[in-house]
């Protein structure tokens, strides 16, 4: 009985703490190249609004930690309440690699479409879904809000509006085109040239993610731009990111 009560108290404390402001370090504004999303063995599907424009589309605005957290605070809390037996709970909750970003911070706060009704036209253009699961961008936005937006310390409208504003301020396709990096089904580009072009064009370093096309060739897939905790200004990315990129990458036509 004592153990059951202790577990109940522990989870109530953890639930209460989840309602406080999240203390993440920065945002990733993640934009994906639609040609690379679609040019894979899995393929893609266009949303109910039709084929998106041939430009980078927002994947999400994701709160992130500058360093994975080991969960020592949770471990200390569990041990204080359960003794050494609380260690297994912390390990299961945090995971072997620690917690590298917050997610699903408020399951009771679903996206309310009327909160973003004035942004829908811009979201359809700049934040479309290419997944074949539903084809409805609203479901995509709802998922991104539930997983990442509820951890952003931003209201629903602000969360989406600030991502749109950052994308508009820094047109990645135009930045790359200015450096001679344009979509092609045959040409490849030095990864360092892509990275340098983005740093020069936006004023800040970014992280790059690649995938492989249906023939196994490496292509630029997503650009991770780093943003301050208010979601307003770009910053240099504070940490490197694992990548499947090689020295030469493609930017396929969409």
UniProtKB/TrEMBL annotation:
Gene Ontology molecular function terms on file: ribonuclease T2 activity; RNA binding
Annotated GO CC locations: extracellular region
GO biological process, one term: RNA catabolic process
Signal peptide residues on this chain, from the entry's feature table: 1-21
The UniProt record lists the keyword Signal: yes
Cited InterPro entries: Ribonuclease_T2_eukaryotic (IPR033697), RNase_T2-like (IPR001568), RNase_T2-like_sf (IPR036430), RNase_T2_His_AS_1 (IPR018188), RNase_T2_His_AS_2 (IPR033130)
Organism from which the protein derives: Paspalum notatum var. saurae
SUPFAM superfamilies reported for this sequence: Ribonuclease Rh-like
Keywords of this entry: Disulfide bond, Signal
Positions of the catalytic residues: 59, 144, 148
Family, per entry: Belongs to the RNase T2 family.
UniProt-listed PANTHER family: OS07G0630400 PROTEIN, RIBONUCLEASE T2
Record-given protein name: Uncharacterized protein
Any one Pfam family match given in the protein's UniProt record, by short name: Ribonuclease_T2
Domain of life: Eukaryota
């Amino acid at each position: 009985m004592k153990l059951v009560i202790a577990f109940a108290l522990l989870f109530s404390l953890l639930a209460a703490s989840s309602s406080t402001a999240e203390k993440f370090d920065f945002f990733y504004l993640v934009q994906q190249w639609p040609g690379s999303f679609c040019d894979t063995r899995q393929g893609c599907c266009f949303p109910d609004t039709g084929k998106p424009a041939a430009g980078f589309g927002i994947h999400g605005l994701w709160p992130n930690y500058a360093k994975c957290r080991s969960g020592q605070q949770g471990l200390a809390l569990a041990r204080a309440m359960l003794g050494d037996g609380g260690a297994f709970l912390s390990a299961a909750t945090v995971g072997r690699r620690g917690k590298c970003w917050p997610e699903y911070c408020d399951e009771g706060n679903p996206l309310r479409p009327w909160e973003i009704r004035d942004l829908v036209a811009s979201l359809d253009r700049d934040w479309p879904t290419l997944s074949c699961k539903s084809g409805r961008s609203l479901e995509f936005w709802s998922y991104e809000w539930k997983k990442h937006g509820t951890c952003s310390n931003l209201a629903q409208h602000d969360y989406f509006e600030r991502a749109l504003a950052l994308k508009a301020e820094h047109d990645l396709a135009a930045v790359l085109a200015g450096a001679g990096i344009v979509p092609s089904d045959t040409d490849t580009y030095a990864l360092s040239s892509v990275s340098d072009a983005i740093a020069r064009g936006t004023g800040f370093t970014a992280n790059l993610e690649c995938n492989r096309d249906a023939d196994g060739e490496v292509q630029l897939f997503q650009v991770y731009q780093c943003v301050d905790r208010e979601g307003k200004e770009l910053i240099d990315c504070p940490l490197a990111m694992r990548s499947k990129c090689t020295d030469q990458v493609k930017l396929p036509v969409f």
